[in-house]
Amino acid sequence: MAANFWTSSHYKQLLDQEEVDVVQSLDKDRGITLDDFKLIKMHMANYILKLAQSVKVRQRVVATAITYMRRVYTRKSMTEYDPRLVTPTCLYLASKAEESTVQARLLVFYIKKLHSDEKYRYEIKHILEMEMKILEALDYYLVIFHPYRALSQLLQDAGLNDISMTQLTWGLVNDTYKMDLILVHPPYLIALACIYIASVLREKDTTAWFEELHVDMNVVKNISIEILDFYENHRMITEERIVTALSKLPMKS
């Protein structure tokens, strides 16, 4: 395991938002827009969470699985890599990478419990085959650094590690996985943005503490704005929009 983020494959693979927001040509041919692309990824992140709750794995596994899924689609099309199969496979792979292994047959059992829709109902052999494709798509780089560890350390350093702030900031970090922030920003900056938002909401004066950190507050504030914009836009996302986006995916082969 890479002990230091700055020497890790995760750091070397950080992308600009413009690179993350590329819809592959095969997907464009199916009429998938950038808005559809983002909606499908958000829907699949929620699917990972539901599956994870069923098989009872910890939040870190969920976060790693979502990161894998999002990273795959910076390189591969949804037309070739069906999100309805990629999603549970990423959870399966993440459970192994995070040493909380979930049996493929258990995943398949809960997939069938969660979805009556035939398009989601894949078998063990499909997950095992897709696992190899995902490993290749990820260049076999499986170590992911998350904001959670930095968050705990920073809250303690700021003297803000009471239950209220801990729960609020933890929830904010969880919600960042509904976006692509983990592919674009170092985890500690995501943690700082969540602390910044929470300190404003809880009316905590953290100005002096942030100044002592010598971080670029413009970056922290920009990430904070992205998170708040997501909440604002999320309220306008209807089930109909998600269904329309999903309908553009190819039929299960």
Biggest sheet character: none
- The SS-based structural class is mainly alpha
Q: Which consecutive residue ranges, at least 5 long each, have pLDDT under 50?
A: none
Number of domains: 2
Query: Share of helix among residues?
Result: 55-70%
Q: Please name the CATH topology of the largest domain.
A: Cyclin A, domain 1
Distance between the termini: 37 Å
CATH architecture of the largest domain: Orthogonal Bundle
Order of helices and strands: HHHHHHHHHHHHHHH
Explain the overall architecture:
With about 250 residues, this protein is mainly alpha-helical. Helix content is about 65%, strand content about 0%. It folds into two domains: about 130 residues, Cyclin A, domain 1 (Orthogonal Bundle), CATH 1.10.472.10; about 90 residues, Orthogonal Bundle (Cyclin A, domain 1). Helix 4 runs antiparallel to helix 5 and helix 10 packs across helix 12. The longest helix has 22 residues. The mean pLDDT is about 95. Pfam families: Cyclin_N. Keywords: Cell cycle, Cell division, Cyclin. GO terms for molecular function: cyclin-dependent protein serine/threonine kinase regulator activity.
